[in-house]
Design brief:
The complex is a heterodimer of chains A (377) and B (628).
Chain A (H helix, E strand, L loop, with lengths): L4 H4 L15 H4 L11 H29 L15 E2 H13 L3 H15 L10 E3 L4 E4 L4 H17 L3 H17 L1 E4 L2 E4 L16 E2 L9 H4 L8 H14 L12 E2 L6 E2 L6 E2 L5 H8 L5 H8 L12 E4 L5 E4 L3 H15 L5 H5 L5 H17 L5
Antiparallel strand pairs in A: 1-2, 2-3, 4-5, 6-7, 7-8, 9-10, 10-11
Chain B lengths: L2 H20 L42 H8 L3 H14 L19 H8 L3 H14 L7 H21 L3 H10 L9 H13 L3 H14 L3 H14 L3 H8 L13 H17 L8 H11 L5 H13 L3 H13 L4 H13 L3 H10 L5 H15 L9 H14 L2 H13 L3 H22 L2 H13 L3 H14 L3 H13 L3 H11 L4 H9 L5 H22 L4 H11 L3 H14 L4 H14 L2 H9 L3 H19 L6
Classes of the chains: A mainly alpha (377), B mainly alpha (628).
Chain lengths: 377, 628
């Protein structure tokens, strides 16, 4: 069932355990410290960016060895070695960042061959090795977005036109099935089935960590019939409007049928393993207002929750469980860097996680650093 | 002043403070120990303004060791920081482009797999193979850096395990990046090598580096412990111990080490009167510790200290304190000895019996103490329970002294049957002991004793054994006179024939037999050869304490065996055989230099084979296994 997806993956609750002591940088109102304007500085930034891309290839090689099977299946080792459309999408994006055309192609072939089993071009969200097949044909919209985005970018990067054709099929299906108008907002329904106004109490229900903000401008030309700019704006607006409980955090799942957004009734009211991706996707998009990201960046650092990222109960503000793994810390360090220019603690760069999910987040964060934030090094 | 300005000023103050705090002489945990010249490694970019780093080295070239080191650690963050610093100092400088390897199409994963398996030989072979297939390929500097460091670490471990101290220092000097908090073991090994080669100041620096830069409590404690063993001077150690941090309970983290040193000083004073007398502060500290619930070992130590000073009442008090918290073999032994030596014989006997069950050593002591009491006319008679425990123990350990005492005790009480039983047991145990060590001298002495007591048959058997194990004139004479007494004429004739040409006294015996003066002459000859046989074992200094030492050595207690020999050597000449034991004990202790010296000092004639073999083994140990 789509509804139990995250529960099925046993990432019961998500959030960040770091409360925000006000930081000096957060108070002075200055723009993030970018590499200064001199030509030397620009050159240094270029050197560091090139360097980090070289280095990233090594990280990717280690990731591929550990989490990607020879036939291109990205394995969630902490959840019974299942695979999902989200993981395939991440695998494609990381292969792309490492410039690994061969791995990209292998992962894409497995994805198309094993998950693209629906009547539309969207992907079954979960594949279980015990069954040897896709076990739930419902889609997960974020997985579809990630795969389509990776295909669209790979078409240019690797000069493979067929990837763009594939991307177009997926994006058109997304436009037709899950990008929907709701009042003044444009929403990304989490799946083609089960999340609409009539499917859930106070529906529709959305998951703001499905908004891959940086992807939407790249998807827009492939299906101009949908309002991608509106989708992006609605995501930012909903983030701003969803501040629940003493920590003013959005819950992973939010019901929009009431007068204002509220934690969805059928899901745990918590900011957890889903929500951690919100700052990641915000940091990826250079057009996101600084304040929107700063709110999440402030979760990192000293304070009563300085013990590290954790799943936070949005009702009480209490920590439900810690989220061990340097990948989770890395997301917050990235957010801080993007808002304040703070360098990323070196140990986060060099500490690999042993589980698929945090290691994926770590590498995604690093790929964002190398692509647009080399001053964070 | 606007709020923004106020904040900026605050930030500036904070920043300054931060720089000052990060500036003191304590090295960064990331920088290697500056034992062999500074490597100028930055701790963090924030230090750039305050601490000159990445500066041109003496020869005008940039020092890139930190850069390569961080690259070898795959540490992108620190590599980036280092590059920024280097470019601030030298704007035109470009980093090498192979820091993290370049996209060559060669998959390094198999190489990393071999690296992970520590199979560096196969790794080199595989690299050579790849190079042949793709001549343009270069292994990533990450790989070559890590490999070089791993191989250097291996060399460091190997040379230090082999106690090749100058080689250790050579490896460390050439691979400064080994000497970081990430590899405290390498710092310890280097520190020991420096100390062993007489470079105490730099050895102290190695330990000081750990204590000022590294945070692992276990490693810090181990560092202080190692320093306390390795550093020759007290002041050097003291300066290190002063770097201790406070534990959450308020105690210093090195307090135990300090106490250990006091304990060693007190222990040395117990062992030897010529050792420096412990100062009052040391004794006070140990006394305080002895009074804590876990202080029984210290109570015991103070007991021995008092015992060594013949302050028996104090010694008794401490040993009793030690025994309050549990049984302790040594404390029980100490208590019995302190009572006995204070002439509290009844109490000594009672305590000896009470604690006899703790350990064979205590049981043996009980046998000694009770036996001494039995043969002391002035002592009170033991209780029936004590007698039962005693006779049981005498039989369990086959104590000859105990059997003798019991025979004497039975005699005194006109218990002829009892005396006979214990006499027989004594003989049987004595015989067993002689058989066990194949002691020709012991066999011969026992032969003469039996001969004297009129047991010619028993005597002949022991003379035969003695002659078989080691032919001697005394045993030959014994065989001749017993054959004569037993009227085994055939044996008599053949023995005379066999021995007369070898031993002058057998020839003399043969000549005087049948003459008027024969009995007198025979008695004279027996006296002469017996005297010779009794003095022989003493002439080379072998005695019962030497046997004890050999037992200790055979049990693998090398430290203890050497300590026993050191103690024994104060009053007794050390026989060559025992010196050989000393050499092997030293060898097993790992003190090869001392072992080499001991073996070299062995008598060339008597021990030529053993000596050569031992020296060869030691030499082999010193040699790198690769060149053996």
């Amino acid at each position: 069932m789509r509804l139990t997806r995250r529960a099925g993956l046993q990432r019961i609750v998500v959030g960040c355990a770091m409360l925000c002591a006000p930081q000096a940088w957060a108070s002075d109102g200055a723009a993030p410290a970018m590499v200064g304007g001199g030509p030397r500085d620009v050159e240094t930034a270029t050197i560091l960016s090139n360097l980090s891309q070289n280095w990233f290839k090594g990280e990717w090689a280690a990731y591929r060895t550990k989490f990607v099977s020879a036939d291109g299946r990205v394995i969630d080792n902490a959840n019974g070695d299942v695979s999902h459309s989200e993981g395939q999408g991440y695998g494609l994006l990381l292969a792309l960042s490492a410039g690994d055309a061969a791995a990209f192609d292998t992962i894409w072939r497995w994805t198309a061959g094993h998950l693209q089993k629906r009547s539309d071009a969207l992907f079954a969200w979960k594949w279980d090795p015990r069954d040897g097949k896709a076990v739930d044909l419902n889609n997960a919209s974020d997985g579809d977005v990630l795969i389509a985005w990776a295909l669209a970018k790979a078409a240019k990067r690797f000069a493979r036109q067929e990837y763009e054709a594939e991307a177009r099929r997926v994006v058109r299906a997304l436009a037709a099935k899950v990008v929907v108008a709701h009042g003044k907002d444009v929403l990304l329904l989490p799946g083609a089935a089960g999340f609409g106004a009539g499917d859930q109490p106070a529906g529709p229900v959305v998951n703001l960590s499905y908004w891959v903000f940086a992807a939407f401008p790249d998807l827009a030309p492939l299906a101009p019939q949908a309002d991608w700019a509106g989708l992006r704006q609605s995501g930012l607006r909903l983030l701003d409007a969803s501040r629940f409980g003493p920590r003013r955090l959005p819950s992973d799942w939010i019901a929009l049928g009431g007068t204002s957004p509220a934690p969805a009734a059928r899901f745990p009211a918590q900011f957890g393993y889903d929500g951690i991706r919100i700052p990641l996707y915000l940091a990826q998009d250079p057009g996101v207002p600084r304040e929107t990201l700063a709110r999440f960046a402030a979760l990192d650092g000293p304070g009563p929750l300085a013990g590290g990222p954790a799943v936070i109960d949005t009702g009480t503000g209490a920590i439900r469980q810690p989220m061990p793994g340097s990948g989770y810390r890395m997301v917050y360090a990235l957010a801080r860097c993007a808002t304040s220019g703070d360098t990323i603690p070196p140990q986060l760069l060099s500490t690999r996680d042993t589980d698929y999910y945090p290691e994926t987040l770590r590498l995604l964060s690093i790929s964002i650093v190398q692509e647009r934030l080399s001053q964070c090094l | 002043m606007s709020l923004k300005h106020a904040l900026l000023v605050t930030c500036a103050v904070v920043a300054t403070t931060a720089v000052v705090r990060s500036q003191p002489n304590t090295p960064s945990p990331l920088a290697p120990a500056p034992l062999f010249g500074s490597a100028a490694v930055p701790a963090r970019p924030a230090d750039a303004a305050a601490v000159p780093v990445g500066s041109p080295a003496q020869d005008g070239k940039l020092d890139l060791s930190a850069l390569y080191y961080f690259a070898s650690q795959n540490d992108l963050g620190r590599v980036a920081a280092e590059i920024k610093l280097l470019r601030v100092k030298n704007p035109d400088w470009q980093p090498p482009d192979d820091l993290f390897g370049t996209a060559s199409g060669v998959d390094e994963q198999p190489l990393w797999d071999l690296f992970a398996k520590h199979d560096y030989v196969a790794l080199h072979a595989k690299m050579a193979e790849l190079k042949q297939g793709t001549p343009s390929w270069q292994p990533s500097s990450n790989l070559t850096g890590k490999l070089a460091l791993a191989e250097a670490n291996d060399a460091l471990v190997k040379t230090s395990d082999a106690k090749q101290w100058p080689a250790v220092i050579e490896v460390a000097t050439a691979n400064k990046m080994l000497l970081t908090c990430a590899n405290v073991d390498a710092l310890w090994r280097t520190g020991e090598a420096l100390a062993r080669t007489g470079d105490e100041p730099r050895a102290v620096e190695a330990y000081r580096y750990v204590l000022s830069s590294c945070d692992s409590p276990k490693e810090r404690l181990a560092t202080a412990q190692k320093a306390s063993v390795v550093l020759p001077t007290t002041s050097a150690l003291d300066s290190l111990l002063q770097m201790e941090r406070r534990l959450p309970d308020g105690r210093g983290e090195f307090e135990e080490i300090r106490l250990d040193r006091f304990r060693r000083n007190i222990g040395a004073a117990i062992e030897s009167a010529s050792a420096p007398t412990p100062v009052a502060a040391e004794l006070d500290a140990i006394t305080a510790s002895a009074k804590t619930p876990a202080g029984h070992a210290d109570a015991e130590l103070l007991g021995w200290y008092a015992y060594a000073h013949r302050d028996y009442p104090t010694a008794q008090r401490w040993f009793r304190t030690a025994l309050e918290t549990g049984t302790s073999q040594k404390a029980a032994e100490g208590l019995v000895l302190a009572l006995r030596d204070n002439n509290q014989n009844d109490e000594a006997r009672a305590a000896a019996v009470q604690f006899a069950g703790i350990d064979p050593i205590n049981r043996k002591l009980m046998v000694d103490v009770v036996a001494a009491g039995l043969t002391d006319p002035a002592a009170h008679a033991p209780t029936p329970e004590q007698m039962t425990a005693f006779t049981q123990a005498v039989q369990d350990v086959k104590s000859q002294d105990g059997a003798e005492a019991l025979r004497w005790y039975a005699d005194n009480r006109h218990d002829a049957a009892g005396a006979k039983v214990w006499s027989a047991k004594w003989l049987s145990w004595k015989g067993e002991e002689i058989e066990q060590v194949k002691s020709a001298e012991g066999a011969e002495a026992l032969g003469w004793q039996l001969y004297q007591n009129g047991d010619a048959t028993g005597a002949e058997a022991w003379f035969q054994k003695s002659a078989n194990w080691a032919p001697s004139e005394s045993a030959a004479v014994g065989l001749v006179v017993t054959a004569r007494r037993l009227r085994h004429e055939g044996d008599y004739a053949s023995r005379i024939a066999a021995y007369r040409t070898i031993y002058p006294r057998v020839a003399e015996l043969a000549k005087s037999m049948g003459t008027q003066t024969a009995p007198k002459r025979v008695a004279q000859i027996i006296k002469v050869v017996r005297a010779k046989s009794v003095t022989r074992p003493n002439s080379d200094g072998w005695d019962r304490s030497a046997d004890e030492i050999v037992k200790t050595f055979s049990a693998g207690s090398y430290d203890e065996a050497v300590a026993m020999m050191d103690k024994r050597r104060l009053n007794h000449k050390e026989p060559g055989g025992l010196s050989a034991v000393r050499g092997w004990a030293q060898y097993h202790q790992g003190d090869w230099a001392a072992a080499e010296k001991t073996f070299a000092g062995l008598d060339e004639k008597e021990f030529s084979d053993k000596k050569r073999e031992a020296l060869r083994l030691i030499q082999m140990g010193y040699t790198n296994p690769r060149y053996r």
